[in-house]
Amino acid sequence: MSVLEHAQMAQPAIQSPIVNDFSLVVATANGTGSQTANLTLLRSFFKLGIPVHGKNIFPSNIQGMPTWYHIRVSHQGYVARKPSEILVAFNPATAQEDVAALPSGGVCLYHTEIKNLPQRSDLVYYPIPAGEFLAGMDIPVKRKPYLANMAYVGVLAWMLDLPLEVVAEALGAQFAQRAKLVESNLEVVRRAQAWAAQNLQKRDPYRLEPMNKTEGLILMTGNEAGALGAVFGGVSVAAWYPITPSTSFMDALKEFLARLRKDEQGHPTYAVVQAEDELAAAGIVMGAGWAGARALTATSGPGISLMAEFVSYGYYAEIPAVIWDIQRVGPSTGLPTRTSQGDLLFTYYLGHGDTKHPVLLPSSIEECFEFGWKAFDLAEELQTPVFVLSDLDLGMNNWMGRPFDYPNQPLQRGKVLSAQELEALGYFARYKDVDGDGIPYRTLPGTPHPMAAYFTRGSGHNEQAQYSERPEDWVRNMARLARKFETARKRMPPPVIQAHPQARIGLIAFGTTRYAIEEARDRLAERLPTSFLRLRALPIGPEVGEFVAAHERVYVIELNRDGQLCAILQNELPELASRLYPIAYLDGLPLTAQWVLEELLKREALQ
After folding, report:
1. What angle do the packed helices 247-260 and 222-232 form, to 10 degrees?
2. Are 366 and 401 in contact (CB under 8 A)?
3. How many C-beta atoms lie closer than 10 Å to residue 541's C-beta?
4. What is the pLDDT of residues 497-510, one digit of tens each?
5. What is the set of domains in the chain, with CATH numbers?
6. If DSSP codes are grouped into helix, strand and coil, which group holds residue 26?
7. Which are the contacts of 119, defined by CB distance < 8 A and separation ≥ 6?
8. Cβ-count burial of 121 within 10 angstroms (0-12 exposed, 13-18 middle, 19+ buried)?
């Protein structure tokens, strides 16, 4: 059967139009250059004013293995992962399972070089003879496979009524207006669109119409947003060791620092060091924080384990530091390119003996930016390492968001004594609680006063920072650190609460699970009204206990196996522990609203 005969074969009757509401997946092989085509589609939909989100599901190797790019288009603004109705099949290795996953009435656009493509009478098929569209083009042979991907952009432009001028704008943004690259890619799109218009008959219901729901918004990854926030927060030292999915955080940080952090002579006023491993990176950050710099590192679960010794030291010696953990699936090296919320318990209690750390929990690019600068204020005010727990989904994918607000307060350095203040006081004890909040005063190296110096000890010490193994000194110091942690409860960002006046059921979650939960709540509004508390930080404040107490049952929904947040909440709210129920699941992919909906209904049916 020829390409055109296949395109014209009997297929499902066209349904009523479905406008600006579909999920699209592009199946290719890693390293084939499909990212340009995929981002062009994402930006094109965004430029049409339609809410959109893209998720890259890619393998942990360099080239050859399957990769999928999911684009959710939703006039309602939903961005959670959703099973796809439209498939672009450009990978023979996965074509069988990709076609099998399509729902009845779905659409399959396929590369005509794929042999033995599964045939289903309930699908619409559109062939794409991608090689034909490159004929006669003056392009290097090595670039042809990359440009071939623009063929499916052209056929989708025909299928969805996507204007080519919008595609051109998206390509201009992708290639920073480099005219030759824009034109060569756009030419393939034009040819494919024209061929489809002449040779294919539209049999699917999906199409696009312009909206204005993205006006004033931006597209950015969470790693980029967090890095930019760190720059606005005054970061001057960063140390790291490459690890997926945090490397792009440091790449963005270096780019922003190079543009924004120079003195009048054009010299950099920062240092970014690639260390020999994560242990060394943490040591550099602790040393810089002790010296008075605002310092950070970014890593993932395996890197956190190597940083444990220095983090424990930073807790007890009371050194400010910021650690971004872009979570991926563990244990061990796990699934490096899949997303997770599995490091919560690990980071909250990381250390040797009795340790607890403040943890920030962003769920959006706006919060990544906000916590990018706010983490430094908290670290210095509390004199302790602060974790920011993002995840691969938030960190490496493009999200819509509002332009970021400039920090609304000056840098908060906390209790730092100057030479003049030391002279006025006449006394300084590094680890003494003067104000009752558990936070001692500190000095910075080089402060020109004889009382400023002290030993920064990770071993047992008394209030004067002198070495001590006296039991009463240990008990007094650890009690003060616990008191300081209680002070932290009052300073962490409060949760976001979406209350429902008729709800008997409450939901608690953090991070990117919010998007599946918010969509599921909308769909369940009449059958099962719920209230939703989105946690933005640990330790928790009083609002969390009040929320739990106000509901008969509270389900804690999270992207890990063991319900780590639920365990923390049960430990910190023992009198309410019986009201907290974990709903935890981890397969490496972001949650879907359908899964959340079904789990809630199933759990409630068992009550």
Report:
1. 40
2. yes
3. 18
4. 999 999 999 999 99
5. 3-207 (3.40.920.10), 220-401 (3.40.50.970), 419-491 (no CATH), 496-605 (3.40.50.920)
6. strand
7. none
8. exposed
- Do 387 and 347 meet the contact criterion of CB atoms below 8 Å apart? yes
Token code pair at residue 83: 């099973």
Per residue in 247-306, pLDDT (tens digit) is 999 999 999 999 999 999 999 999 999 999 999 999 999 999 999 999 999 999 999 999
Q: Where would I find the H helices in 291-432?
A: 301-317, 344-348, 365-382, 392-396, 419-425
Element (H, E) at 359: strand 359-360
Cα 260 to Cα 490: distance, rounded to the nearest angstrom: 33
The pLDDT tens digits for 325-343 are: 999 999 999 999 999 999 9
Whether the Cβ atoms of residue 306 and residue 333 lie closer than 8 Å to each other: no
Inter-residue contact 236 to 293 (CB < 8 Å): yes
Helix axes 150-160, 34-47, angle to 10 degrees: 30
In order, the DSSP letters of 447-513 are: -SSTTS-----SS-B-TTS-B---HHHHHHHHHHHHHHHHHHHHHSPPPEEE--TT-SEEEEEEGGG
Average pLDDT over every residue of 98-125: 96
Q: Which two tokens stand for residue 308?
A: 């444990």
The residue to which tokens 């955080």 are assigned: 249
Whether 557 contacts 300, CB under 8 Å: no
Q: pLDDT over 90 for what percent of the chain? A: 91
* pLDDT reported for residue 11: 62
- 271-274 and 237-240 as β-strands: parallel, antiparallel, unpaired? parallel
- Tell me how many helices (H) and strands (E) the chain has: 20, 23
What is the four-CA torsion angle of 570, 571, 572, 575, rounded to 10 degrees?
Answer: 60
CB-based contact 176:218 (threshold 8 Å): no
Terminal CA-CA length for the chain: 57
